[in-house]
User: What shape does this take?
Amino acid sequence: QVQLVESGGGLVQPGGSLRLSCTASPEHFSLYAMGWYRQAPGKQREFVAAIYSDGETNYADSVRGRFAISRDKSKSTVDLQMNTLRPEDTAVYYCRGGKSYNNWGQGTQVTVSS
Assistant: This one.
């Protein structure tokens, strides 16, 4: 059974940065496609970014140029570096992965507020 655990959320001021990590176990599942999604209060969960087994990446238009997804094979993690954060980035951020891309983590809260 794949387990995905997110970390790194918190409160940050507009314009600030945060780095989220998703740790996969067993470790080899971190080599499959993995993605980040988010859900703001009262809204549907939406795609943020993904990294595929060949290293290709994809981003939602709303975060392209501000967020960067990367894989750290030594730590079995997939990280999301978030820069120039905006209040509208406030949401619970979820990691998604697994062999069939149908496993989810429990989520980590990101709040962007002054």
